[in-house]
């Protein structure tokens, strides 16, 4: 399967009602996809690849916030 197809499937996957271990796996999968797309981007400099990496990064950050918890608003 093409890496961009995998990224699209990952982007469209539902992330609700996941266990902690599912979130860890999803975060690692997002990182793998981002790094793989980055390798292709380095060679081609296609803007669509950069857009895909940005979307995956946003989804990865949401997953990681849920894993780590929100930071204390300040003391």
From TrEMBL:
Superkingdom classification of source: Bacteria
Protein name, per record: Uncharacterized protein
